[in-house]
Design brief:
It contains ten helices and no strands. It has 169 residues and is mostly helical.
């Protein structure tokens, strides 16, 4: 197996491989296995920011342990305050906790940090959702339209734009 081929003592690489396995399991819909691999990746290397961020985001997306997700995500934001992916994850967790004004601050920072204009449609859809719930529907619609332009395929994205309101997935 790939893990047995990783030299003993190369904890960073071993952790990266475990994180990749976790990502694969999550994409396949096997979330329990995914979280086992993220936990193993973090046992080997507690500083694996990708594993921390992905585990936090997927915990939030599955509605599992938001407190744990927030703590993991906060570490990523502290370590990489200019990383738009980390900021998006943290903002999304705050949104799910109903902390819309705080979430808006972090998602706006994520978008303003996107100097290459490469943020994903998901980031822009999150921005729209957050702004809608924070009471700025015009900005929300603007972000949802940006998400569409970037290939956003959320089934409800067009409905959000048309109805000018947040619609839960």
């Amino acid at each position: 197996s790939t893990l047995t081929e990783v030299r003993d003592g190369d904890d960073e690489l071993r952790s990266a491989v475990l994180c990749s396995i976790g990502d694969t399991y999550y994409k396949m819909g096997t979330t329990d296995s995914a979280f086992v691999y993220y936990d193993r990746a973090l046992e080997v290397n507690p500083d694996n920011l990708l594993a921390l961020n992905n585990c936090a985001y997927y915990l939030a997306e599955t509605g599992q342990d938001l407190d744990k997700a927030e703590k993991m995500s906060a570490i990523c934001v502290r370590q990489q305050p200019d990383n738009d992916t980390a900021l998006d994850t943290y903002a999304w967790i705050l949104f799910l906790e109903g902390r819309y004004e705080e979430a808006k601050m972090y998602i706006d920072q994520a978008i303003s940090n996107d100097s290459t204009d490469e943020s994903s449609a998901d980031v822009y859809e999150h921005a729209g959702d957050i702004h809608a719930m924070a009471g700025d529907i015009d900005k929300a619609v603007e972000y949802w339209k940006q998400a569409q332009k970037r290939g956003g395929e959320s089934k409800i994205l067009a409905r959000k734009i048309k109805q000018r309101k947040y619609i839960k997935k």
